[in-house]
Amino acid sequence: MKKQLFVLVSLIVAASMILSGCAAATPTAAPAAPAATAAPVIQVQTQIVNQVITATPAPVTAPTGGEIAVIVKTGNSGYWQNVQAGAVKAEKELRATTPKLTVTFLGAQSESNIDEEINIVESAIDRGVKAIVLAPSDATALQPAVADAKKAGIPVLIIDSALNGDPSQYVSFLATDNKAAGAACGKAMIDALTAAGKTTGKIQIMSYVAGAGSEIGRVGGFTDYIKANSKFTIVSPTQYSNSDMPTALNQTTNVLNANPDLVAIFGANEPTAIGMGTAIKNAKLSGKIVAIGFDGAKQEQAFIQDGTLQAIAVQSSFNLGYLGVKDAFDIAFNNKTMPATVDTGFLMVTKDNLDSQDAKNVLY
Which domains does the chain have, with CATH numbers? Predict the structure, then answer.
């Protein structure tokens, strides 16, 4: 009986030890559960951090400003000052979305100072402008500077006058079709001479800077039209004023004195046409000699009004500055592509339409 009782007690003790061993095992397994649930929390936090890192560079690297350099032949004429007015308007509009944008406007002391314009372009490249809007004073001499800009990753937009060579060096060309405008001046001259009963006689061309792209187009278009459509003789040589009004005045005075049988005269840009008109008026030849000019300054408008000039071909110089800056911005900041050429047009202004709205839109 005692032996059986001992066995029973032993069994009870053994069972208690097994149960207590199982209870002790439970705490050792418990830490595994928190470890398993913590892992997803760490992963979620990592993903959030990664998303923030990806999102933050956009506002930092987005273009907030920079310089667009408008470089013209000279600032010393109403024509180029009207180009500047257009550029200023474009700058004001663009600053609404790009407040740190700067549009600079620079030109040589005179249109004949080609080296000075080249230096202005090279300086703009050196200071890392975003884009250049360029009116080249020489169709060939500015080529290396434009090529340097492209190598530096600076887009160049050409305005007013063509640049010779590889057109891939610049992104677009905005200008009047100068050859067509020159031809229109030739037609206006023949029409005025025919109305005066003249079908033969001498015509003198007063031009500005030899080799300028616009000059080549205007004088070429004028000459071709006169030769193809009349029996008038063009006097040689062409006179070049270097876009200096007093020089044009003196040259025209000399031409009038040397050619008393001259029937007509053509002034191919603003300073030249003003000097030409002044010389005609001083010689008391207003209305006695047919004179056609180019551009739309106030003095030229006055010459139209008093009959010294019979017509002027007027470009929208304001639009050259305005559209030039707008397009340069879209190219440099928005990576847009532009047409290779953009014809900004011209208007033949005479006494008949001088006060029209169309004329007021382009005269300055």
Answer: 63-176+318-345 (3.40.50.2300), 178-314 (3.40.50.2300)
